Amino acid sequence: MTVSAQTSSGVVGLAGRFPAGASADEPSARLRLAGRPLPMVSPARVYVCGITPYDVTHLGHAATFVWADAAESVLRSVGVHTLASRNVTDVDDVLTTAASRQGRHYDDFALYQEYLFEQDMAALRVRRPAHAPRARHHVPQVRQLAAALLTTGNAYERDGHVFFRGAVAAADSGLSRDRALALASEFGDDPADPLRDDPFDTPIWRPSTAEHPAWPSPWGWGRPGWHAECAAMALATLGAGVDLLVGGRDLVFPHHAYQAAMVEAATAVTPFARRVMHVGAVHVDGRKMAKSVGNLVLVGDLVRDHPPAAVRLLLLDRRWGADWEYRPADLDAATAELEQLYAAAGRPSRSSAASGAVTAALLDDLDVPRAVAVARDEGGEAARGLLQVLALG
Ligand code: ZN
């Protein structure tokens, strides 16, 4: 075998090698997330629970995707390759109902909504993920998942349904039984369905009536359940486990609990996600932003009057897990803060250690407020680096 000295293959010879002990400070091992170390080995596999394309993107959705994007960017800034998958739940009863209300075919309606979403993401400089799986393209994987869970004894067939046995996932959630049942109902499940052995069982596969999309399966024509779709799409794009699962806080239970339980039961690889990043909800006038409440703040409206980077900074300049209240004045403050960061970036650096302090803050649970404070005070390379990592330029 011939060994040649190519730069991409590492340095041959002593000159240019790291001094002994330098590897102990490999920054990929310094990330802490949710209060615990999360050392990364490339590629970092990031699954982002994406949209159901039935409505416009509001600030609450955007927060999840901007935070996922920022987490990946921080990882890349310390040399970790990232492999992201952000799904599109384009087979969903909410979508089918919304499309039929407008007299549109659900496929056509979903593609249009997805196009609008992509525009908002582009405005907010959220990078396109390596994988953007659509539920409708992963029906075969859902069938395989159902078959796998039937084989392992974690699922059973009944009247054209395949139900996942979910009692353990519910018990492990730490929620009271009543609260867990209420959440299951709120997110589209039907715990009172008499077909189920247990109220916490959930459909991996269910039969479709005429108004719903349907695919053939060993259990008859039907469609996948929501949690099974995300389980199958994660398996199809990233394999049996992920380093980071990202989604809104309202997805903790039942969605992410069931997604993880299904993947773990089918693959015997645990945990499904090494770490979960549940992004805090956005409130307006004291209530969580939601279409049903009627207090939506749309990304498209905000970026019309303000620099998109200011909207991005507004979303990021806080702790990612905390709920927060949106006030229009805060967006003006974020715009002013962005100007301060730009001014700081144009100044000479006050300290050569400042860039390291910015990186240290970002690796410490993505502490953007601390990183911004350092960048603003120290200026120069620290500010330029922060603007770049957070895509605020
Ligand atoms: Zn999901």
Q: Can you tell me about this structure?
A:
The chain is α/β, with parallel strands linked by helices. It has a domain at 42-279: 3-Layer(aba) Sandwich (Rossmann fold), CATH 3.40.50. It has helices at residues 59-77, 93-101, 106-123, 139-151, 167-172, 177-186, 226-238, 252-267, 299-305, 308-316, 328-346, 354-363, 368-378, 381-389, and strands spanning 32-33, 36-37, 44-51, 82-88, 155-158, 161-164, 202-207, 222-224, 242-248, 273-279, 282-284, 287-288, 324-325. The protein has a four-stranded parallel beta sheet with strand order 4-3-9-10, sandwiched between helices. Strands 5-6-7-8 form a four-stranded antiparallel beta sheet. It has a three-stranded mixed beta sheet with strand order 12-11-13, covered by helices on one side. The longest helix is centred in the N-terminal third of the chain and has 19 residues, at 59-77. The radius of gyration is 23 Å and the shape is globular. The model is unreliable at 1-7 (pLDDT under 50). The site of zinc ion has 4 residues, from helix 8.
